[in-house]
Amino acid sequence: MGEIWIDGAVPLSGEVRIQGSKNAALPMMAAALLHEGVTVLHGCPQIADVRMMERILNILGVETCWKEHSLILDCRRVTGVEIMDDCASCMRSSIILLGSMLARKGKMKITYPGGCAIGKRPVDLHLMAMEKMGARIEEKEGFLLVEHSGRLEGKNIEFPFPSVGATENTLLAAVLARGTTRLINCAREPEITHLCHFLQAMGAEIGGIGTGELWVRGVSTLRDVEYQVPPDRIVAGTFLYGAAATRGKIILDNAPVEEMEAVLEVYEKMGGQWEYKGGKLLADGRKVHCSPGKVETSCYPGFPTDMQSVLLAVLLTIPEESCVWEKIFEDRFKVVSQFRSMGGDVVVEGRKARIRGGNPLRGTVVEAGELRGGAALVVAGLAARGITVVRNSHFIERGYENLEQMIAKLGGKIRFAEK
Ligand code: UD1
Question: Which residues pair with 205 in a beta bridge?
Fold first, then answer.
């Protein structure tokens, strides 16, 4: 357990390099299981969720090792089919192993997956797709048993609404299936596009990439691959908004600007200025002063739900009224009570938050309850006067690599304290 201590009200300034993407790396790690060989992920973020997924893969028999930021996954031997472990129940992404494990071993028994405290996160769409492809599913108290004999069958799978995880899982199940699988109304998030390109590099046959309708023609073998994990658009967005909240001016090296359109659009509406030059995002947040009006989270290319709480932190510093509508998750405003204890004026009604910004934020002791809400508290702490202590920093470590060191590099007065 740890705490992050911030002495705020210092404009961020300087340059940082954006880490590899958590949400791209995790499904790629699951995809490695499809191949009886060796996969190398370069630029893999050294964060708690990746370590946790590595631990789960180790339980299944995968040998792993790190060379700096390259993660080597030797999947020649996969001996286990059970993940009846705490790590599965505390990380929702463990469900992403289902498609690969069915393809590789024909069976998986897994503790019901957990995840962030942002409301109910069912896995019915994942199971619907697997069942349609021929798997039998038993749901018992606390765990899922999914199995089938022979090869999975390619089918037309239509999702009632786009789910990132269910799209990824179905893609993974389809790569080695018999015949062609069509994914209709699937998610279009950039991490899915990255997963498709990664699978293609492994030898998979996939079309419709970047659209809401993907097809996968099953192949019988894959090959060893070395792949660069793309940069994390949410981490880049967090730094961008951190600079906005402190009216700072920063340079983000390796920021995936082409995937950040909605985040940059809101940043511009708030008065932020930016340009992309020589592979770097130059962000000047010194003129941030006005409300972007109403912001709704939505599927890509809309405003990402993972940036919602970080946006709230910025809006608290703008002396106007704003409204944020959370349309993806049912209960993603838990951080608001912590903002209030810092002096923030936010009222939540159902899935909408009304923010009356401009009240001076003051440092106090706050508690992170989940990953992105925790990062948002750090951003609020950077903008606040006095000392903010963010407890439960382990939530933040799930997705941000050395966040304190990066912010310190940008001139923030911040340190980690063991608790
Ligand atoms: C992924 C991301 C997460 C991001 C989210 C939305 C990873 C590891 N995580 O999560 O950071 O916030 O996309 O962009 O990539 N749903 C169902 N049934 C299902 C699956 C989902 O009802 O079987 C619902 C969820 O409860 C949620 C919505 O669909 O309300 C979107 O969830 P989904 O896109 O699946 O998100 P995740 O894959 O969990």
Answer: 217
Q: 258 alpha carbon to ligand 1 midpoint, in Å?
A: 22
Q: Which two tokens stand for residue 145?
A: 């048993």
Dist. CA 34–CA 176, nearest whole Å = 8
Contacts of 211 (CB under 8 A, 6+ apart): 188
Tell me the catalytic residues: 116
For residue range 214-236, what is the model confidence (pLDDT) as tens digits?
999 999 999 999 999 999 999 99
Which sequence spans correspond to the domains of the chain? 2-19+231-418, 22-219
What is the tens place of the pLDDT at every residue in 374-409?
Answer: 999 999 999 999 999 999 999 999 999 999 999 999
Who's near 206: CB < 8 A, 6+ residues apart? 171, 196, 199, 200, 214, 215, 216, 217
Atom 7 in ligand 1: residue holding the nearest Cα = 23
2-19+231-418 and 22-219 share one CATH topology? yes
What architecture is the 2-19+231-418 domain classified under in CATH?
Alpha-beta prism (3.65)
Closest CA to 176 of 241, 233, 223: 223
Architecture of domain 22-219: Alpha-beta prism (3.65)
Q: How far, CA to CA in Å, does 186 sit from each of 4, 169, 288, 362?
A: 38, 11, 36, 43
